Amino acid sequence: MGKRYGRKRGHMRPKTPEKTNTSKDMRKNQRIENNVAHSSSPSSSGNSSEDHWKSTTSESVLVYKEPSVYDNLLMTLGSGSESLANVYKRRKKEEEGRSDTEEDEDYAFEMSGGSEEENNGSDDDSGQSHAMQTEIQESINIDPIEQSEEDETVDEDEASDSDEEHELELNGQTGTDVTKSMSSFNLHLGNKLSNLEVVALTKNKWKFEWEVPAVGMLMSKWVGTGKCFLKEDNDNCVSGLKQKLYKHWLNVYKMSGGINFNSSKQKLFFSICNSYRDILHCNKKPFYLKGLEEDSSIMDAYIMHALNHIFRTRDIVVKNDAKLSKNQDAVKEEILSGDRFLDHGFTRPKVLILLPLASVAYRVVRRLIQLTPSSNKVNVEYSDRFSDEFGAEAVQDDNDDGENEIANNVRDNENSNIQKSSKPSDFQVLFGGNNNDHFMMGIKFTRKSIKMYSDFYSSDMIIASPLGLITKIGEAEVEKEKDVDYLSSIEVLIIDHADVIAMQNWSHVNSVVEQLNCFPSKQHGIDVMRIRHWYLDGHSRFYRQTIVLGSFVNPDLNALFNRLCVNYEGKVKLISEYKGVLPKVLLQVRQIYERFDASSIINADDSRLDYFSKKVFPKIKDSVQGGIMIFISSYFEFVRIRNFLKLQNASFCLLDEYTKQSDISRARGWFFQGTRKIMLYTERAHFYHRYKIRGIQNLIIYSLPERKEFYPEIVNMLEGSDNMACTALFSRFDQYRLERIVGTASSKKMVSSEKNVFLFC
Q1: Which terminus has fewer CB within 10 Å in the chain: N or C?
Q2: What is residue 73's predicted lDDT score, i.e. its pLDDT?
Q3: Rounded-to-integer distance, Cα 543 and Cα 193, Å
Q4: What residues have CB less than 8 Å from 401, skipping those under 6 apart?
Q5: What gap in Å lies between CA 91 and CA 332, rounded to an integer?
Q6: What's the chain's Rg over C-alpha atoms?
Q7: Shortest CA distance to 450 belongs to which of 310, 240, 315, 270?
Q8: Measuring CA to CA, which residue among 721, 636, 728 is closest to residue 682?
């Protein structure tokens, strides 16, 4: 691979006649790329607010502009380099609207007074450019290890098979033709945000302007901002996918028994990912709830999207390296004057996938390897170590490219483990493998190999759990020699099985996302002259695509999607209606729903506790029978109820996610024997243990469960009760949970009705 050269901004003065044509062609190509970069992408051209930004920008007059990060960088480097100082001066003149003639006159004025450099023409230009090149190389410390590893990726034949639209940029097509031919990858990363657009994005005001029925999903629809891309012809929805990846994906699909790929769920969801919009899909039936086909289809789609993003990023870097290597004798100021050589972020990792458990990560990475073309995985390094640390006891065959492996693993867990335990089947499938929730691994793709456990700074993709990543962030805050700058250039963030992560600690996810796309504390050997401008301007978070996937939505997921996902392309989310799970209650239980009033979501918890203490607890305080179980969704509510019962000197026992095993057995015995009248039981304790609580006579659901499948499980524990009654508390801010349990239609009536008590039998 050739040396990397610094990028110099500004116009050039006229060269000798024999080099004028070359300069003209390059300026022509630069104009084409600028037209493409400033043209609106198909996914956003219909957004009226964006049109307003552009029209306002075009009509505004030139005013004083604060120096950007890129300007400050040039100024700093220029303090020790006359060539770079000239670059900064010319960039300022360019921003002031000075013409080439004016700049040439200024340059001639600076060099006046019988200067030999002015009279020597292009020969001295070449020498000056060579001096600039040397000084830039000395000022930028490129890691020799990273340099040698990158050499492994250089392959002219492979580079030429990729971006057809990149070649079109060099063939003199018009800006419109190039825009139609370019992939969504180049359109997304090549767009330049105006100051007005950035200001609008920071205000977080999103309006979902269109809706489209979700194909293959009853009672669901996609809604989105900007232009509706899902209404267009879907035949070209994989046009942005590299041909090599597409052929291999199609082959894997056929080998797994697929018939019509064009109408498959994989292709449909890939088209949404390929729009580079932020996505919230929280009605995905997970693999552990007999939703293997749907879950696998969505997983295949986002894996292919991630691979496509990584491979296209690598192709651009390899091509630019090759061009710079071939033009070592050319004038580097002219070569690096356009935007086409801006292909770097602050660090190398571009994709981050957050997963809850090591067994889920094992499933995703194995599929990632299967979906990687054979020529790119001649060698998979540390696969044995990965199987030992992430997999179950049985190691599957790496040559299986279909979905049979996943299906067999699920069936084996269901058939073998259920016979040994009374736990529900979904519990066995989810926790039957490696349930470690503290892991982090880097993956690097080279020309012919996949390197797992690669150094984070040399990785293309990072697979991690929120706990594993938050631990690294905490270490970096304490130890100065450590940092998490590898999170500074993440361009695609995927959070899969967000519903399971919500049962762990969702605040970790918020902390991780807030840490993304920040300015790095160190340089890490990157060529600063090739960093994209929107990185240097601090706008990279507006280019990051975030994909959130789960089986349900709650206020925490919504808050992250609304507050921390600010992709300029816009947002797409799935809205679903529910039938409810009341038919799954097998017993004839009187289910009484009592609504309490809460003025805002901030004081909803206080209102709930106040209603419980005044309306519910007096009815059970003097109960002689006992057997009262209070089900609580969150740990914070659990603490408040525990403290309240202590103040009331109530007879109760505890069963939460932090209770020791010995205390759990003792509490269950006390409750069953009647020694303790009240038991507090949390949703997370049920999620991680699925206890069968015996001796329940009266069930009080203090807060509805997030996971709808837990409701019939908890209510069915009343089997053998003399009372067969269940009381559930809710407010209008429990709309999400309520509709998943009683159904969307019923929940709307219950929230808006004048009555406060509702009965289901």
Answers
A1: C
A2: 56
A3: 10
A4: 251, 252, 255, 256, 370
A5: 16
A6: 30
A7: 310
A8: 636
3-class SS of residue 177: helix
Cα(735)–Cα(719) distance, rounded to whole angstroms? 28
Beta strands in 550-589 (DSSP E): 571-576
Low-confidence ranges of the chain (pLDDT < 70): 1-182, 231-237, 328-338, 393-421
d(CA 175, CA 177): 6
Structure tokens at 59: 């009509």
Distance between CA 395 and CA 393 in Å, rounded? 6
Who contacts 393 (Cβ-Cβ below 8 Å, separation ≥6)? none
Lookup: tokens for 409: 């693993």
Question: Rounded CA gap, 673 and 667, in Å?
Answer: 10
Q: What superfamily would CATH give domain 582-760?
A: P-loop containing nucleotide triphosphate hydrolases (3.40.50.300)
Helix (H, G, I), strand (E, B) or coil at 301: helix
- Pick the closest to residue 466 from 440, 430, 431, 489 (CA basis): 440
Sequential DSSP letters for 461-525 = EEEE-HHHHHHHHHHHHH-TT---GGGTT--EEEE-SHHHHHHH-HHHHHHHHHHTTPPPSS-TT
pLDDT at 70: 55
Q: Are 600 and 669 in contact (CB under 8 A)?
A: no
Into which CATH architecture does domain 277-289+338-393+426-576 fall?
3-Layer(aba) Sandwich (3.40)
* Alpha-carbon dihedral angle through residues 374, 376, 378, 384, given to the nearest 10 degrees: -100
Q: Helix, strand or coil for residue 86?
A: helix
The CA-to-CA distance between both ends of the chain, in Å, stands at: 73
Same fold, 277-289+338-393+426-576 and 582-760: yes
Tell me the per-residue pLDDT of 62-75, one tens digit each, with 9 for 90 and over. 444 455 555 565 55
Query: Tokens 């046009």 label which residue?
Result: 239
Say which amino acid occupies 232.
E
Query: How many CA atoms are closer than 13 Å to the CA of 154, on its beta-carbon side?
Result: 14
Domain segments of the chain as ranges: 277-289+338-393+426-576, 582-760
**Of 724, 727, 718, 737, nearest in space to 757 by CA:** 727
CA 669/CA 661 separation, integer angstroms: 13
Beta strands 220-224 and 571-576, pairing class = antiparallel
